[in-house]
Write a structure and sequence with these properties.
Elements: E1 5-6, E2 14-20, H1 24-29, H2 33-41, E3 51-55, E4 61-68, H3 80-83, E5 87-91, H4 97-110, H5 122-125, E6 128-131, H6 138-156, H7 164-177, E7 181-186, H8 189-192, H9 196-202, E8 210-217, E9 223-228, E10 230-234, H10 243-246, H11 254-268, E11 274-284, E12 296-298, E13 304-306, H12 314-327, E14 332-336, H13 341-347, E15 353-356, H14 359-371, E16 377-378, E17 396-397, H15 406-415, E18 424-428, E19 432-433, E20 443-444, H16 449-460
Parallel strand pairs: 1-6, 2-4, 2-5, 5-6, 9-11, 9-14, 10-11, 13-17, 14-18, 15-16
Antiparallel strand pairs: 3-4, 7-8, 8-11, 12-13, 15-18, 19-20
Bound molecules: zinc ion (ZN).
């Protein structure tokens, strides 16, 4: 992705100009007459998502004119890295630093490719390269692009190559880069160290369940704790998913990928926090040892859980991780999860949801989300639904009695394992692009990651 950007300044760089449809005539009036004629001949009206290659009088490419909405946004340049002729380009625009960051990030994301299983062609090698604009916060763009790329790579990699062990290896790689501590509790050691739910969900797989534990930062800084759901493949367990629902389940570790990517951003920006990230990494498989619907399981928090459905496994593994982090009395507790289909019914594929018990942090998150063009939508922790999780024989049931409001029920379930007053943000999202759009190829996707980081950077920045 970042090789589509260059610090070199070339006088021969082809300028890229962004023009609002309403201002095209005014812009054209300042150009040589034939430029306007060329744009008209090519039917270019500066509609958002369109662009026109403008030659000079010798026929060489002299300028790229891109149509945008006002103000310039994240995806304005995203189609270009894959479509422009190979060569060196430079932005010819005046934008605020925030806007510039977004536009350049959009270019970087447009250059993302998941290339692990494809032979590269010569065409892939030669590409359009954009000069880093002078006023652009290069580090911020790199940080966001690399984190997004990490989520996409991890979520798009099939489960055969990304099981619990490989997810742990990915966490260790990130930890090493920032000299963070990273330990992993594997298999039956989860029982010895009292993570019974994580063990129960993952025990049916040949690939042992584990809890990834990353720590970084000064012990004097406020504690920031993050959980990410790391279900590397979700068959649904004995409540087996139908094939159409199982097809995408390699991405059920996307919450874990978000937690790791957010940790990378936090460490890279050196936020003033004492960071701890827990990723329960399991495969929800089918075998004679699989946990069953109606089983009653003990949890780390001491609550017994009646299993309503073995496909509601994410909330179980997260419950043990949340309980452990809650014990450490963090300043803020955040979790990421591809938790419920109900969230997608409510908000669709592209809009991640969050739940929180605190109005101020909600407002801060919404403000950050808007600023970095990473939309999120709040759903309610609607207390009257809590009784739907009552069980006649255990402290709580993992699923509700009514097949509605499932995203809210999952959030209320998780809340049972932490302090009522804990400052907490729970997220539930798709983590996947179901179709390719400029800058957003089909495959794993970071959703709400940049918004969360932007909020944290204000809260814990220098
Ligand atoms: Zn499931």
């Amino acid at each position: 992705m970042l090789d589509a950007l260059s610090g070199r300044r070339l006088r021969s760089a082809v300028p890229i100009t962004l023009v609002n449809a309403g201002k095209l005539d005014a812009w054209t009036a300042r150009q040589p007459e034939w430029v306007g004629e060329w744009l008209t001949t090519n039917g270019f009206a500066a509609s958002p998502g369109t662009y026109c290659l403008v030659p000079d009088t010798t026929g060489a490419l002299a300028r790229v004119v891109v149509g945008i909405d006002h103000p310039a946004g994240l995806w304005d340049l995203s189609a270009l890295p894959a479509q422009l002729p190979a060569g060196h380009y430079a932005l010819d625009v005046r934008l605020s630093s925030d806007r510039l960051e977004l536009v350049v990030l959009g270019w970087a994301l447009g250059a993302y490719r998941f290339a692990r299983y494809k032979r590269t062609t010569e065409e892939d090698e030669s590409r359009a390269v954009l000069e880093w604009p002078v006023k652009c916060d290069r580090k911020a763009v790199e940080c966001a692009a690399l984190a997004t790329g990490l989520v996409r790579d991890l979520a798009t990699t099939p489960a055969s190559d990304l099981g619990p062990a490989e997810l742990a290896a990915a966490a260790k790689t990130v930890a090493k880069k920032f000299k963070a501590e990273c330990t992993v509790i594997v298999g039956d050691n989860l029982l010895k160290q009292n993570y019974p739910l994580i063990h129960a969900v993952g025990r049916a797989s040949e690939r042992a369940p584990r809890l990834i534990d990353l720590r970084w930062g000064s012990s004097r800084a406020p504690k920031l704790s993050i959980v990410g759901k790391g279900v590397c493949f979700d068959t649904g367990g004995l409540d087996l998913k139908p094939s159409s629902n199982m097809l995408l389940m390699k991405k059920d570790m996307c919450g874990g990928a978000h937690a790791l990517a957010l940790a990378q951003m936090i460490m890279s920006a050196r936020l003033k926090v004492q960071l701890r990230v827990l990723i329960p990494a399991v495969e929800n498989s089918v075998s004679s040892d699989a946990y069953r619907p109606s089983d009653v399981l003990m949890s780390r928090a001491g609550l017994t859980v009646e299993v309503g459905n073995t496909d509601a496994e994410g909330r179980l593994v997260m419950a043990d991780a949340l309980a452990e982090l809650d014990d450490g009395d963090p300043d803020l507790l955040i979790d990421f999860s591809t938790l419920t289909g109900a969230q997608r019914v409510a908000c669709g594929y592209d809009l991640p949801s969050y739940f929180t018990n605190d109005e101020r942090i909600s407002a801060a998150l919404m403000k950050a989300s808007d600023r970095v063009a990473d939309p999120m939508w709040r759903l309610p922790l609607f207390e009257p639904y809590r009784s739907q999780l009552d069980s006649p024989i255990a402290d709580i049931n993992s699923t509700g009695k009514v097949p509605m409001g499932g995203a809210i029920l999952a959030a209320l379930f998780l809340r049972a394992f932490i302090d009522r007053d804990r400052l907490w943000i729970h997220t539930d999202f798709m983590g996947w692009n179901t179709a390719s759009r400029p800058g957003r190829p089909l495959g794993g996707e970071a959703q709400g990651l940049r918004a969360m980081f932007a909020m944290l950077a204000v809260r814990y920045g220098k």
